[in-house]
Structures are given as structure tokens and as C-alpha cells.
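Posting here for the record, re: nicotinamide-adenine-dinucleotide.
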Amino acid sequence: MSRPARIAFIGCGMIAGEYARTLAASSEVTLAACADANRDAAVAFARQHHVPRVADMADLLDPAATDIAAVLTPPASHAPIAHAAIRAGIPGVYVEKPLATSPSQARDLTQAAAKAGVLLGAAPDTILATPTQTARAAIEAGVLGRIVAASANYLTPGPERWHPRPEPFHAAEAGPLADMGPYYLTSLTYLLGLIECVVGASTDSQLYRTIRAGPRAGQVFTAGAPTHVTALLRTANAATITFTASFDLAGTLSPHLEIHGSKATITLPDPNFHAGEVQIRMAGDRHWQPLPPTTPAITPVGRGMGILALADVLQGRQSAFACTGQSAAHVTSVIDTIYRAAAAASTTALHVS
Ligand SMILES: NC(=O)c1ccc[n+]([C@@H]2O[C@H](COP(=O)([O-])OP(=O)(O)OC[C@H]3O[C@@H](n4cnc5c(N)ncnc54)[C@H](O)[C@@H]3O)[C@@H](O)[C@H]2O)c1
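Prediction output follows.
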């Protein structure tokens, strides 16, 4: 395939704009069509981003016109839309996070894609950018020595501080763990390998939430998912990880991600973004210093890099890519297991005498 890969967006909301800007800066792909359950949204999006075709779903999922379908809708519709794209024979399907809302749904999706010979990719693609690539190069070169432990912290006062419609962030299938956990857990598994076992604890210390921004400021709603979750994870390589995801805390000075090896510790910037500095402190040193950044293999940098990586594989420029459906399915399982472990801990935890 020498022409640019033809991308079709399904879902033309907030995040689709970021993708469109990244893809527009690449000559390897072209944003050929878009669809949305709200056709007016698709029409407005097409006008703003110069998309030549607004289609309904049936027309969009035509392998004669689409090489990669990008599923950018809310989480509950990810799996059904991705299945429809796989059934239609679209060669590449890329899904925003979370890949699916349950481990069995994620497994069905990866199996259907494998059976159909479809390349399934999934967000987040921040692991392809400089910070995570820099950390991975240092780990692979042995700069950190043997990996002993890691910690990850997403500690915030919740989206109702800034978002005028924050209820979906607190829905039963969301909460801080399911909504933001994919960024942290995808980085951790990319850097440290698969997670093998899990201990969890959660609270809903602030069940009633007050909207602080926009025309509905002052209105109160009820959170449907735990608002503060802590997990202790162990990787297949026996590194231990602590991860806390919270919508209940005023703030923190803890780093987003910290990885400790026998020879050095590194800290990474926010894994929700594609930029920032990685710092290292060697055992015995008194100071932190920046790690020399690794140039990302894929440009332009930004949300949508995962689609560029998928196009590279489909068009034979690369043989493998990191943002796989399988990795995303593993993260879906880890999140589900943390919730189950937290629920079980309320009855099985050892009580201090
Ligand atoms: N907004 C963000 O900051 C952000 C950041 C990273 C990832 N994401 C992820 O991106 C995805 C989309 O989030 P968003 O913020 O863009 O949402 P959004 O609500 O702004 O947009 C979603 C769009 O999808 C359309 N849609 C809904 N169901 C559909 C269906 N069945 N078929 C076709 N179109 C449908 C809606 O009409 C809407 O236009 C979510 O999975 C979210 O987790 C969002």
C-alpha cells in the first residue's frame, strides 16, 4: 500500500479533535471519513477538520474505503462498534481507552480480531512518546539494575472541580481507577511486564459530589464507583507496585510514576500526556538528574500516535507495535481484579488485634 492509510473516525466528540490534529500532521495517513450517533456533530467535525466524507456506520465500515476504524465513542459502545468493524473486514481497528468494560468483553474482542486477521490497537498511546521510551531504553540497558518496585499516583480532587458535566467520570463503570488507571497501568506493564497478582482496598469517602464549574455549579450527585482506590500489585518478574487512584484528595507532591531498581530510581511525568522529563538518581548519588531523552520512533507526537503505529504495521513499515488490544485487555483485567480484591478485602483482610 503506497497511498496514505484511510482512517475513519466513529465518534466526533472532545477527544476526536486531538486525534485529528495529530493525524493531519502526518503524510502516512488521511482522515477520510467520520460518523457519529449525532449526525450534526459529525457534520460540524468534518467541516472543522476538513474530513471529506460524513457517513453512517454501515457506509463507514467498508473495507473498500477504510483501512483503519478509530473508535472514539464513550466506553460502553467501544466493544460493540469494534466488533462491527472486525465483522466488516476493516484491516485495522483502534479503540480509545478503555478497550472494553469487562475482561470477558475485552477477551472476546481480541479473539475475534485474531480470528479475522484484523490488527487491533488500543489507547493510550502515550507509551510511544519520549518519556516512556526514555524510561524503557534505560531499563533495557540495565541502567536501573534489577527492578525492585514501583509506585504510581493519580491523586486529585475529582473532575467536578473543572468539568461542567462530571457525572460520567463517576459512573459505575468509571471512577478514578477505571477512567485514569489505563494510563498508569499501561505504562507500568509496558515498562515492567505483566501483572500477576493484586491486593486492593477502596473507600467512597466522598460519595456525594458537588459540581463546581459551569451553569450547574452547586448541584449534587452521587458517585457510582469507589472514589479512592489503592492497589498493591506484583509483576510476573516479582517487582511490587503500589498504585493509588483518587478523586478525593486536595493535591500531592508524589511523582506520577516512580521506578526503583537495584542501581537507580527514575521518576516519570504524567502518563496521560506525551511530554515531560524523566529524572534519575543513582544509588549513592545525592542529586537527581535528567535522563537524556530518546527520540520517539513515531512522529508527529500526540494523541493518535497509536493509529500511526498501526498504519506502519499495516503498510509494512514496521513489524510490530506496542499499543495492542492484548495489552489493553490485560489492563482491563487488572482493573477488574483490583476492584474484586478491594471488595474481598472488606471481609478477608486481617484485622489488627
Ligand atoms: N475527553 C477527554 O479528555 C478524553 C481523554 C482521553 C480519552 N478519552 C476517551 O475518549 C473516548 C471519547 O471521549 P470524549 O471525551 O471524546 O467523549 P464525548 O462525549 O465528547 O464524544 C463522544 C462522541 O461519540 C458519539 N457517540 C456516542 N455513542 C455513539 C455510538 N454508539 N456510535 C457513534 N457515535 C457515538 C457522541 O455523540 C459524541 O459525539 C472515551 O472512551 C474517553 O474515555 C477522553
